[in-house]
Please model this.
Amino acid sequence: MASCPRILSIAGSDSGGGAGIQADIRTITNLGGHAMTAITAVTAQNSAGVTAVDLMSPDMVLAQIWAVMDDFDADAIKIGMLGSPEIALAVAGFLKSLRNKPVVFDPVMVATSGATLADDRTIAAFHKIIPLSSLVTPNLDEMERLGGENMIAGLPVPFLIKGGHGEDAVLVDRLIGSDGEQERWEGSRIDTRHSHGTGCTLSAAIATYLASGDSISGAIGKARDYVRASLKAAPGFGAGHGPMGVPKI
Model:
């Protein structure tokens, strides 16, 4: 492992800077890592919503990945918005070539504003990536669209089911393994509309901590604390779901 952990983020670009590649770069850099990227899509969006999406070709996504891997290598991989089944299958093919590298898969389906970022065919292709991951981080809605918690049984990868989309005052994130064992983290809801990019930030932070040698449980705990600090540091930009801030480490 390099002294500065190298994290490759495979995700879409958010022109408003709240989520996606921009959130990943900000998080990885703030946590002391070196951020590298393979952009899957360019989106036109702000705090109010997504107005346009332009997907990269699968060949271009792979070209970015291999340009990075052949020269710099990576200590961990974070996967976010993929945008199409063809890109998802191309990324799955790349993952098959990896050996002993943490892979954190955040199965992005819907933007905070409600815009759809993955259709049914793309979600079906996610099932080619899941068994090749070290951790999958769906929210409650994404878990249901993946097939529900029953699908976890027998898979060689744990799921962190995020409770932020729940309605209770106390939010619960649950780590569930193929054996059904659970670990839970609880936290009170932070009252803010500036929460754009929470999932991206969490998964990027987990990947960075894993690349630094933390266990999955330890990385999740630290990443959750980082996201909560980011929510509290939000600068208040935008009329809708604004970006989080950059907390002091």
Notes: The chain has a mean pLDDT of 94. The chain is about 35% helix and 20% strand. The CA atoms of residues 75 and 100 lie 9 Å apart.
